[in-house]
């Protein structure tokens, strides 16, 4: 459940301390909107994220900044917490209007470069093979066209980098999991943490593996480690990209960690016999029944199931059967 206010009930806000927020709609998404933050500086505002690349979103961002006493043309830079289109989509247009630089963690910058060279045919072939290896029936993951890849950033960030923001101390904290290059931004002079999608007040971010059967990464372990990293900052105010601002990042990080640990326990209990990734996903608990999930949401659920299976495998609790296609996992004592 979520207590977020619908987009219609949102408005631009001055949050005090030189920080403001602008809700930017995500057309057709149950998330409703992205909260874009503007941090004041002598050289112009810096944006944390930019919103979805859509005319309604552009209008909302432009009008919201104007209502708060500034203008898109004055923006000095955009720090993208991660490459997803509801965060990075409008960054390129902001750069066109203002000459602002775009910054993103180097891991997500690498993915953006890959995406921009990945044609529609190659994308469909990638999806089809990924689904086949997961044991899925014949279906597509997408409802509608694939979003245009975001703009390539001008600056690539690493963990601990200070952002170019005169008069303030804004530090990038690498928090992989939701994406390989997700960053939170810690405004050290105000003990405020811009959490992107890493820590949200009521929902949990998607943690998936693509392609599903990779065995060389463990994004769930990365995510849990990243939760501990932001929790170590103490009781900071969280300014997330969705839902609402809340007071205690560390407490919410602990809740999210417990949620995933419980999910791992329940998934391990299902693996008394070999299951494909798709079969495991269909048996797991989601916010609605498997039958009611759209093809796109089933695909995302399979990605999340894959990440949890990989974490259990890395912990030595389950194993993947050798030379089996589609891939199957089973408990180590079965």
Automatic annotation (TrEMBL):
Residues 1-21 are annotated as: Disordered. CDD domains: TTHA1429-like_MBL-fold. InterPro entries: Metallo-B-lactamas, NDM-1-like, RibonucZ/Hydroxyglut_hydro, WH-like_DNA-bd_sf. SUPFAM superfamilies: Metallo-hydrolase/oxidoreductase. It comes from the Bacteria. Residues 33-242 form the Metallo-beta-lactamase domain. Pfam families: Lactamase_B (PF00753). This is MBL fold metallo-hydrolase. It comes from Nonomuraea roseola. The lineage of its organism: Bacteria, Bacillati, Actinomycetota, Actinomycetes, Streptosporangiales.
């Amino acid at each position: 459940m979520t207590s977020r206010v619908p987009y219609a009930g949102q408005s631009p806000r001055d949050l005090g301390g030189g920080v403001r927020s602008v809700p930017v709609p995500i057309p057709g998404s149950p998330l409703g909107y992205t909260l874009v933050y503007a941090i004041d500086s002598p050289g112009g505002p810096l944006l944390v994220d930019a919103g979805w690349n859509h005319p309604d979103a552009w209008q909302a961002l432009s009008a919201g900044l104007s209502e708060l006493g500034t203008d898109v043309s004055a923006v000095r830079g955009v720090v993208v917490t991660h490459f997803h289109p509801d965060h990075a989509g409008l960054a390129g247009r902001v750069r066109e209007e203002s000459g602002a630089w775009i910054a993103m963690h180097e891991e997500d910058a690498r993915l953006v470069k890959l995406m921009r060279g990945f044609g529609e045919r190659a994308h469909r072939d990638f999806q089809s093979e990924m689904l086949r290896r997961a044991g899925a029936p014949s279906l597509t993951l997408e409802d509608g066209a694939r979003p245009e890849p975001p703009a390539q950033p001008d600056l690539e960030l690493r963990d601990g980098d200070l952002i170019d923001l005169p008069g303030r101390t804004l530090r990038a904290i690498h928090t992989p999991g939701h994406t390989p290059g997700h960053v939170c931004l810690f405004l050290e002079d105000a003990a405020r943490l811009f959490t992107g999608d890493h820590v949200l007040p009521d929902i949990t971010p998607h943690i998936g593996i693509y392609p599903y059967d990779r065995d060389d990464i463990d994004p769930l372990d990365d995510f849990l480690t990243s939760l501990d990293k932001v929790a170590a900052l103490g009781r900071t105010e969280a300014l997330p990209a969705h839902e609402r601002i809340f007071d205690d990042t560390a407490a919410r990080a602990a809740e999210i960690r417990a949620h995933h640990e419980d999910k791992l326990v329940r998934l391990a209990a299902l693996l008394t016999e070999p299951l494909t990734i798709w079969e495991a996903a269909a048996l797991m608990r989601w916010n609605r029944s498997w039958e009611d999930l759209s093809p796109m949401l089933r695909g995302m659920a399979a990605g999340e199931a894959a990440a949890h299976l990989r974490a259990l495998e890395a912990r030595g609790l389950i194993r993947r059967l050798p030379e089996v296609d589609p891939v199957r996992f089973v408990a180590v004592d079965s």
